[in-house]
Amino acid sequence: MRFLQTHKKTKHYLLAIGLVFVIVLFAQVLNYYLPHTSLLLVFLAGVLLISAKTSLGPALMSSLLSFLSFNYFFTEPYYTFNMLHKADIATLIIFLMVALMTAHLATQMREALAKQEVAMNRLFHFYEFSQTLSSAANTESTIQILEQALHRVLNNDGRVIIATQQDSRLVLHTHEVASGHPGEEMFKHIFAKALETEFWHKGWLFFPLSWNGKQLGLVAINERLNDKQIAAITTFCQLTAVVLHRTLLVAELAQTKLIAETEKLRATLLSSVSHDLRTPLSSIMGASSSLREYARQLSATDQQLLLQTIEDEAHRLDRHIQNLLDMTRLSQGKLNLNKEWIDIEDLIHGALHRLGNQLDRIEFTLQFPDDMPLLYVQGMLIEQAIFNVLDNAIQHHSAKPVIHISVQHNPEWVTINIVDNGPGIAPAEKEKIFDMFYSLTQGDRHRHNTTGTGMGLAICRGMIEAHGGKVRALDNPDGQGTMIQITLPNTPLATTNKD
Amino acid sequence: MPSILLIEDEAQIKKFLRISLEAHQYHVLEARLGEQGLAILLDQQVDLVILDLGLPDMDGQEVIKTIRKWSQIPIIVLSVRSNEAEKVQALDAGANDYMTKPFGISELMARVRALLRISDPPTTAGSKRELGGLEIDLAEYQVRLDGQLIHLSRKEFELLRLLTNQPGHILTHRYLTQAIWGENFADETHYLRVLVRQLRHKLGEEPAQPRFIETLQGVGYRFKVSL
Predict the structure, then answer these.
(1) Which of A279, A424, A479, B204 has the fewest CB atoms within 10 Å, i.e. is most exposed?
(2) How far is Cα A101 from Cα A198, in angstroms, rounded to an integer?
């Protein structure tokens, strides 16, 4: 760099000498047509040109050279540095003064222009930098943009380490593999000082990334920097701090929102659970206390009715508790599948059996293929899933439900279709009914004439998905109602039946 | 009057069981701890044990094993839901049946009756059995369903024989597989699943309300007895 500059300076001096030489030749020609004093104007033009194009040194030299050459070539006695006429002496002295003044003014103007250009350049860099920054979505990309900008300012391969405060601890962003750069401890130490301007420490220059008095991070650079570079880096750091602050705010907002959602879910869950547990309990308490207090006034039929209530409500309570247990197991992801070979017919029959007394008011049709494969699943869970679908279909049906269960299979999947003739499900809700949060928040609205918790289908989906299967709600292909389609992988049997 | 030993630490459950059992003319002996129960068994005439698996002093499984060292008395186990492994373990240790809490008293009474009846006279002795419309001739390898002769394969016949050996008793998957295919196939329960399905089809079972073979998911099978 320095070598290049010296080279440029020499070139400027050579240019000055060359130009004076050319002017001398040119003036020799002009001398035939003009009075010799007028030739000084040509020399002055040369000085002006040199001062405009180069710096003060070459300009001064060209003035002096012009003065000497004019004296040597164009004043009597010719080809000596003596002068005969007093007028010539005066003219030359005035020329020298004017030339020097011109050189001075012109170089000053040129320098001012150059300075302005540098300032414009810097301004442009800042503008470009803030443009790129505004597109940064997170801390990572912000830091990356800052790093690139810093390397442009440094020119050399100066080392840069940036630290930002994340979740109340400092995170270092560096590509280097340790060795020789300030460690986390030093950053913490400097960070604790809450710097306002740059700060030297053990060969590293630290710049604060802070905005509105809030410290967000630090930048460390191990290079000697001039004032301009420090000013530029300070500006970059300030701009970055603003953006960092913004991304932090965005992240904080998202976090707050998440907490609020979770809180809402928890509150809904709690109110739903306590509602679901209390309703059967109040029936049980009411019926049993009625029996105890008024047994004598009640007819035998009424007594039986109350007793029936107690039993039914106890069963309902038991179902809710089972649902809660299942849900807890699913949400904790602690479902250790204990798979074995299971006959689908067995599963469906188990699920139907669990419906107990309700079986009497339902009409069932079943359709199984002759070559139905075995499933490799945890029987209890799939039985629970099928039971939940059946239970849901019955709970949402006021009249006599007709339920058709059929099984289909191909080499990859086994499909169990459970079709009811109930009220059906609106297209917009077909996916949502499997959503735990939806069932919980919407539960009460649908529940006025049912006894379900609304968790059943969400649990069903959880259990089927744990086995690598899928559950969907479709329209009944043969008329009014819903078809719940359970698809499970068809696991190939290693050996054939030995009979 | 048959006497029943109730080993259970929950006072409320013990109370309603005692009231119901006494209403059915059973003599009830109560124990809150496993050790107490074992002591009563050694000391007094008992015909059936109802045992809660979750006892404060010792594991219910241990109680079953200890009883089985010197007695073949029928044992009904009470356990909480969603623990199939525990039920299977208890059945393999020698329990005859289980009830899942919460349960209805009528179901328990039916099980008690079934187990007491079986343990009393050996109804399944001899070469012919008749169970709710099913006639089995062990000597002739013949099975009639409602008077109609049905054809069973050797393994199907063997399965039916095992199930009807002890009607009302639960037979675990492992036990059945081992008995039909042998020790080496004890874990290959899919053979059993297919065999049970075939037998059920031949017996014309309704999946929703089976007449003969009842599935206990994750545990095993039981031949239903008219209760």
Answers:
(1) A479
(2) 43
Closest CA to B110 of B94, B99, B123, B102: B99
Report, as ranges of residue numbers, the positions in chain B whose pLDDT lies below 50.
121-123, 227
Residue A168 DSSP label: T
Query: In the prediction, which pLDDT does A47 show?
Result: 87
The number of helices, as runs of H, and strands, as runs of E, in chain A is 12, 12
From A347, A348, A497, residue closest to B194, measured CB to CB = A497
pLDDT at residue A451, as a whole number: 47
Instruction: Output phi, psi for B24, to 5 deg.
Output: -95, 20
In whole angstroms, what is the distance from residue A409 CA to residue B80 CA?
A: 35
Nearest-angstrom CA–CA distance, A116 and A222:
29
ipTM of model over 0.95: no
Query: Are A401 and A420 spatial neighbours (Cβ–Cβ below 8 Å)?
Result: yes
Q: Which CATH architecture has domain B128-223?
A: Orthogonal Bundle (1.10)
Say how far apart CA A43 and CA A278 lie, in whole Å.
Answer: 110
Let me know the angle formed at the C-alpha of A137 by A135 and A142, rounded to the nearest 5 degrees: 80
User: Domain B3-119 belongs to what architecture?
Assistant: 3-Layer(aba) Sandwich (3.40)
Chain A positions contacting chain B at CB under 8 Å are 311, 314, 318, 322, 325, 338, 340-343, 345-350, 352-353, 359, 364, 366, 374, 378-380, 383, 493, 495, 497-499
Q: What confidence score (pLDDT) does residue A447 get?
A: 44
A6, A54, A55 from A10: Cα distances, Å: 6, 11, 11
The encoded tokens of residue B207 equal: 């999946």
Q: How far is the C-alpha of A122 from the C-alpha of A233, rounded, in Å?
A: 11
Q: Do B196 and A325 touch (CB under 8 A)?
A: no
The token duo for B104 is 């209805």
Residues of B in contact with A313 (CB under 8 A): none
Grouped pLDDT means (10 residues each) for chain A, 499 residues: 69 89 89 84 87 84 88 84 82 87 86 88 85 81 84 74 79 65 77 80 83 83 81 86 85 85 74 77 90 88 90 85 78 73 86 80 86 87 90 80 91 92 83 70 45 72 88 88 92 58
pLDDT of residue A409: 92
Amino acid at B178: Q
The DSSP call for residue A198 is: -
Task: Find, among A416, A430, A417, the residue nearest to A489 by Cα.
Answer: A416
Helices (H) and strands (E) in chain B, counts: 8, 12
Q: What share of chain B is helix, strand, coil (3-state, %, to 5)?
A: 45, 25, 35
How much is the pLDDT for B47? 93
A299: its two tokens: 């007819």
Q: Which residues pair with B216 in a beta bridge?
A: B220
- Please report the beta strands in A77-182, taking only residues with DSSP state E, as ranges in sequence order: 160-166, 169-173
How high is the pLDDT of residue A445?
Answer: 44
Q: Sign of torsion, CA B30 B36 B41 B45?
A: negative
Burial, A398: exposed, middle or buried (Cβ in 10 Å; 0-12, 13-18, 19+)?
Answer: exposed
Domain-by-domain residue ranges, chain B?
3-119, 128-223
Please tell me the predicted confidence (pLDDT) of residue B160: 92
Name B4's bridge partners. Answer: B28, B48
Instruction: Compute, in degrees rounded to 10, the torsion defined by CA atoms B50, B52, B57, B58.
Output: 90
Q: Which of A324, A353, A386 to mutate to test the interface with B (most CBs of B within 10 A)?
A: A353
